[in-house]
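Handout, section B. The chain below has 137 residues.
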Amino acid sequence: MNTPPPAHLRLTTVDTRDRLRIELHGDLDFDNAGVLLQEVTTQLSARPGLKDLHLHCGGLGSVDSTGLSTLLMIVRRTSAAGVRLHLDDRTAGLDRILVITGTLDYLTAPLSNGVPKPSVSEENVGAARPTGPDGTT
């Protein structure tokens, strides 16, 4: 069985004065996620007046755990900068990994005092964790 080579991540950046859109094309994985993180970090540093960062995800291929970790780093950095992160045109695969890992609300929630406000309260987080047959996690 032939396994296709990974699709390199290509980024297309479109910007206005207070808004930035980065279009993602390819896989967001171990081999490529650093490219996106570096671009976002560079843009946040260079644009202190930025209000919204839109990641256009319609061209995403696969997303692995490193890709997810990168998205979580990006939301922390955008939140610290007071920038709202938008994950636009999410693919079914991206939505699936976000739902399975419980990160969808965290990555898509509106800012509250510069920090993403997940819809799941801290006291309910433990209740949402899967448990084994003996009641352990």
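Note. The chain has a mean pLDDT of 82. Compare this with the example in section A.
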